[in-house]
Amino acid sequence: MKDKSRLGDIIRIALPLETDVYATEEALRQEVNWVSVIWTRNRVASQMEKGDILLLPCEVQQRATIQELLKFAEKAASLSAAAVILCDEIPEELLKWAESASLPLIRLKNSSLRDAHKEITSLLIDRQSQISERGMQLYRQLSEMSREGDSLQNMANLMGKLTGKIVVIQDKRLEIQALAYPAGAITLDEEALRNALMDKDNLPAVLRNRKAAAKANRTHWQHLLFPHHNAARLLSPIISGDRARGYLSIVGAAGEIDLLDTTTVEQGAAACALEMAKAKAVSEAKKALRGNFLEGLLAGTIPDREVERLAARLDHNTEQPHAVLTFRWRNSTNISVRRIETTLNWLLSTHNRPTLVHIYGDSHIVAFCALQDAEESIHAIKLARRLRDQLSADYPKEKLSAGLSGIMTTLTQWPQGYKDAMQAMEVGERLNLPEVVEFNSLGIYRLLGQLDDIVAVRDFCDEVIGPLVKYDRDHRSSLVLTIEQYFNHHGNVSQTAESLFVHRNTLLYRLDRIQDLTGHDLNQSDMRLALHLALKLWQLRPENN
To answer: What residues contact 447, with CB distance under 8 A and at least 6 apart?
Structure first.
């Protein structure tokens, strides 16, 4: 770091953010020697030295004509003044002359000359203390913005204006929540920048685990982001509670990341943590209110006449057609159902249909997918498949169960849609189906699934299929599979034998053995139907998956 501050440093660190600056990039890089108040325009040389910033009090400026101001500016430029700071409006003629002479002009707004003189002097004497003070000012300002409901984008804009560099705020999944690209910042392709920042491999290793990031001793990291552009990234995790809730980055030329940038990224991350914590608290409160209404609705404890009146609690357009999706882990106790919710919400950020997501009873996810019309269930199916594929990639040892209802056109139909989706999901689990199961495709299983718990039905299934199961177990045979394939091929012996890779005579022997064990003649339609129903009921039992 250089001993002397540059003009750009003075503007960023010592002057108010709303200050008007008229200067070239080259002029902002020149070193500043001192700051001088000019009380007498015709004695400039005796009041300054080369590299000084000149402060012209308002009363001095106001008493001068435009010609006198131009003469003063010419003298300042000839003596190599670093810049001239004025308190009042700058005449257009003076601006044009200063631009042609490369003399930086600065206009203070909402700040006194005395305050500017004090801040600039403090910076020139003790740069580090002044930067620390600037950081605390930034934190207070950002915190106030959060309290007043300003967005993360406005907070990023403020930090971008202060640093003159690209500022990016990301959530825990590296989705970009705000991006500020101030004038004069390093020139980078925005799409390439977004892709680089959203690549988890570009995070320092310790920050890839959000809990580890919260416990790290360091508060910021710096690395080259685009080496061929000499672009560097200064990064700080946004810590709330025991984990990182997001990341704040400042991107600029590698040789120009300085102490102010470090202070900004640290204080900015702390302020963003407050904003994210507030947003999460509001979201959780809304989620709880919505969840209470949804669970009452689905459980049937809210009268129909009250449903429409309370629908506003959902903060969701319920007048469109909807389909219900249900999800849960299949036979898993190792991983929370909230992981499904987190991934689903992430996918919904790029899904073009509004979807309401709720964790029901900490056991499964219910998603109400809005559709444009009553023929659009394919969009819900695509969402379920995207979720399955993403979870398979993230948790390859786990399996997802999913069910889909038919189309519902009114809010009062949602409870039945939920029951249908749950039944479809349960049938899919019992039959070990890998795809999302649609209620409308269940066919006979819609009925059989409701009969399974009836004692007489279970006894009937045991009497018919039980002997085949026992025979297979005792003789290591496959009579159950044989009769299943026989029914799947509509009683066609040749096709069934081919599917089982056995000779036709072998199949005929097996079919005779099945008839003997079950007492059901496959040539009699009633007995064939009874055997087929018993097989399907047996397949529905979870223990037989």
So the answer is: none
